[in-house]
């Protein structure tokens, strides 16, 4: 169905190929898992297979790429290809433009289904399949990152195309939602759909993926069945509340750096925070866990003034975060968003970091920029256009923009999204080093391994409330 032969591609204004000599054949009805480290070329390969490189982005493309026996370049643009191929991007925000979830899913159906009844039935079916029926009237911009991902997937499923390409569809989903999405993909495969999925969370695809394609430096480094490439199961995480390495948190005998009392916040009529009481202490490394929509991101946005409560107390250091100007709060509380693209706007990496330093009149900004780029392993990328970086590299750039301002509190919302395991560990090692320097680290994450290995305290949220608060006990070497 899809055939690539000696396919190479270089982005506009870049001299380094993103894809090199890719030869790949994908048959109808296959489920292909594409994996590899950050910046390996996974997203670029997806864009090629969807026809977007040829018809939208330009750049230099060599080699052969065909779909259903016809050269991809011979199709009459994306409007024709979209009749056959749907793609869910790694940035859900880039796809969600309507004022309600229902409108988002309905937007492409008028030319595909003849009657209103058919369209309504299709919308209801994909909403139920993706567990978003309760979000029908919600505005996509007000959803959590994981909820946005499920809406984007539902919109693609509604198109009912023969090929579905998904770039990191589970990156912002909790364990339960990830399992649900993988089961949806299994069902699509059983219906004869061709599914191409990029993911770092591999183990759930064992027994689902027909083939795994591993990329490295823009080349296919190896491919085969899941069991051939990953013969040993990675195991599953222990149930949180039964974890013997956790004990109830006991507050230390010192003043908290963050104090939250009776915090309430609604989005319209939907309660997001429902009476949160919480204290965080100087120098802690805290992991904030919970299912999508439990209130984690809403909570941390109150710490730097991006959101103001309907009622309640939020104090950060000695500042009243319910009234203090945002520019005052961000000097002390830096927040790295779960989607780095919402933070990036400049034309170069250097300009992205320099913007914040200029606002706080940092002396010797050139030295500070070089320091943080070295910390996040982006040295040499100063003049790179941020949108040409991989998702993981953009995540690290967003972190560097916050690190440069040296706030006492560093908040990371899903900091390992789009990063492979090795890079996730490097990112966490950086956070531990910042904790050692006296910073307080607050991390929103779905990754239990990361939480248990690097945090010292785990706070669990459910339905807008804190439902659990644990200390991670000191582990002994095995």
What does this protein look like?
Mean pLDDT is 89; it is low at 233-239. The chain folds into two domains: 2-229, P-loop containing nucleotide triphosphate hydrolases (Rossmann fold, 3-Layer(aba) Sandwich); 240-472, P-loop containing nucleotide triphosphate hydrolases (Rossmann fold). The termini are far apart. It has helices at 42-50, 52-57, 77-81, 101-106, 116-129, 145-158, 175-190, 226-229, 296-301, 326-329, 349-359, 365-375, 391-403, 421-436, 448-454; strands at residues 2-10, 19-26, 31-35, 60-67, 70-71, 85-88, 163-167, 194-198, 211-216, 219-224, 246-248, 258-267, 270-280, 285-289, 311-316, 319-320, 333-336, 409-413, 440-444, 457-462, 465-472. By secondary structure, it is an alpha/beta fold.
List its salient traits.
Rossmann fold; six-stranded mixed beta sheet; alpha/beta; 2 domains; 478 residues; single chain
Helix and strand topology:
Blueprint: E1 2-10, E2 19-26, E3 31-35, H1 42-50, H2 52-57, E4 60-67, E5 70-71, H3 77-81, E6 85-88, H4 101-106, H5 116-129, H6 145-158, E7 163-167, H7 175-190, E8 194-198, E9 211-216, E10 219-224, H8 226-229, E11 246-248, E12 258-267, E13 270-280, E14 285-289, H9 296-301, E15 311-316, E16 319-320, H10 326-329, E17 333-336, H11 349-359, H12 365-375, H13 391-403, E18 409-413, H14 421-436, E19 440-444, H15 448-454, E20 457-462, E21 465-472
Parallel strand pairs: 3-8, 3-9, 6-7, 7-8, 14-19, 14-20, 17-18, 18-19
Antiparallel strand pairs: 1-2, 1-4, 4-5, 9-10, 11-21, 12-13, 12-15, 15-16, 20-21
Helix pairs in contact: 5-6, 11-13, 12-13
